[in-house]
Write a structure and sequence with these properties.
The protein has 13 helices and 19 strands. With 463 residues, it is α/β, with parallel strands linked by helices. The strands form 3 sheets. A 9-stranded mixed β-sheet has the order 9-8-7-6-2-3-1-10-11. Strands 14-13-12-15-16-17-18-19 form an 8-stranded mixed β-sheet, sandwiched between helices. Strand 16 and strand 17 form a beta hairpin. Helix 5 crosses helix 13. The radius of gyration is 24 Å and the shape is elongated. The two termini are 33 Å apart.
Length: 463
């Protein structure tokens, strides 16, 4: 069996938690559906891996309960058969959830017997497996999957995805060079930071700042996506770059690989020489636990905006805007937006332009057609290069990483990550714009897309 883990989205985890209250000391149960994210070749292990992403939660109604106490719960199985039929029709994985209000997050022998029979039915109906989740009174979770009727396989690694971030099942101790960090955050939080598999979309100014920050924080596994080369104009802001790199026109990913290798701090960095969103990047993106969007194009942002919705993988988007208004007046903005369940997406905030995204995709995929449309004034065109100053791009990268740390450690409060932070360098202040989810948003208003994971076409987009 391939390696397997779960991504549990915050709204669904909250619903699981609510069963404890609903039961008032007695066990309660529910059904769930999980999307399937198959990774043919994990970028770090080079082995196949499967991730199950929570898609929907359905409590077993009081009218379906047969009996319940602090040590057992039984219910009618009509709802279970409907669950299996829906899972088969949609290509999702069915799941059972029940509480242990007077015990620990550990499966009992009675659970084994009952679930084996239900798993037999699920497998006969053509399911690839049946997931089972229990929650104890203290909120601890345990998960496993039945792929045969003989025994279930424990799923030890769970990514809890929302404004607060956590990975269950991590083991080990923080690296010794993290001593000063451990003194602030402690062993557990530092272990969490190190355990996240981080993606960085973009290897330019902000991406080149984010990578060494993750390296120094102890992240062990990272993947970076970029297809650009170093030129002379990059040297004012591209961390790790040398003039000889620009002369040789080296790929930016080569520069960052060298930075990681020379540090000898234990990070395994995988480089993908493609823009995030290219089909060759899909497998590696699906393997991440968080993705830092450091691209300056609308196409990459629009793709990752939708990707976060389908796969439940947090995306932290970094945006910069700089201009000189007069000889002595400037507009200098940095924005960090966190794309997790419950937060509005980039379309809702107006931070991505679908028309520009389409034009950028056309320019990359079919430059001749793009040039013809440009000549006919059907596209906006590239315009002049945007200004960039290393101090501002670096601070924007640090804002993004610190927001991620707030999600893991709670350093800014129990609420975790904010939906959006805007820093005005010229005004020396920071704002938290209120962005409301739009009811007609083509991305985050559709319940059917949350945690849907793999489907054809990819992300349900016809190219």
């Amino acid at each position: 069996m391939d390696a397997m883990d779960l991504i549990l989205l915050e709204p669904h985890e909250a619903q699981i938690q609510s069963l404890l209250t609903a039961g008032a000391g007695s066990e309660r149960s529910a059904y769930m559906l999980f999307g399937i994210a198959d990774i043919e070749c994990d970028p770090w292990s080079n082995q196949p891996r499967r991730r199950l992403v929570s898609h929907r939660f359905d409590p077993v109604g009081d009218n379906e309960l047969v009996s319940a106490s602090g040590r057992h719960v039984t219910w009618q199985t009509d709802g279970f058969m409907r669950l299996l039929n829906e899972a088969k029709t949609t290509g999702l994985t069915p799941a059972l959830v029940h509480t242990h209000p007077k015990g620990k997050a550990r499966f009992s022998e009675q659970d084994d017997r009952n679930e084996a029979e239900l798993a037999r039915t699920a497998l006969l109906k053509g399911m690839q497996g049946l997931v089972s989740i229990i929650i104890a009174e203290n909120g601890d979770l345990a998960a496993r999957i039945w792929t045969t009727t003989e025994n279930a396989v424990e799923i030890g690694r769970i990514l809890h995805s929302g404004p607060r971030l956590r990975i269950s099942g991590l083991t080990g101790t923080p690296a010794k060079f993290l001593d000063r960090q451990v003194r602030l955050f402690g062993d557990d939080a530092s272990l969490q930071v190190s355990g996240f598999r981080c993606g960085i979309a973009g290897g330019g100014a902000t991406g080149s700042a984010v990578l060494p920050l993750l390296l120094r924080l102890g992240v062990k596994e990272a993947v970076q996506f970029d297809k650009d080369i170093v030129d002379l104009t990059n040297l004012n802001r591209l961390h790790g770059a040398r003039r000889s790199d620009a002369d040789a026109k080296l790929p930016k990913t080569n520069i960052h690989a060298r930075t990681v290798e020379e540090s000898a701090l234990g990070m395994k960095l995988v480089s993908v020489d493609a823009w995030a969103g290219d089909p060759v990047t899909w497998e590696a993106l699906k393997a991440c636990d968080v993705i830092f969007c450091c691209t300056d194009d609308h196409a990459g942002r629009l793709f990752l905006n939708r990707f976060a919705r389908f796969y439940g993988i947090p995306v932290i988007d970094v945006g910069l805007a700089m201009q000189r208004r007069t000889e002595t007046a400037y507009d200098l903005f940095a924005r960090v937006s966190t794309l997790v369940p419950g937060h509005p997406c980039l379309l809702c905030g107006g931070y991505v332009d679908p028309r520009r995204a389409r034009e950028e995709t056309l320019r990359r995929d079919d430059p001749d057609s793009y040039q013809r449309l440009k000549e006919e004034a059907y596209v906006l065109g590239e315009g002049d290069p945007s200004p960039a100053v290393v101090t501002f791009t670096t601070e924007a990268g640090a804002m993004a990483v610190n927001e991620w740390l707030a999600g893991i450690t709670g350093l800014a409060g129990e609420a975790g990550m904010l939906p959006t932070r805007m820093r005005r360098f010229h005004a020396r202040d920071e704002r938290k714009p209120l962005v409301e989810p739009q009811p007609d948003c083509p991305c985050c208003s559709q319940e059917a897309t949350l945690g849907r994971a793999d489907m054809q076409p990819f992300l349900d987009v016809v190219s």
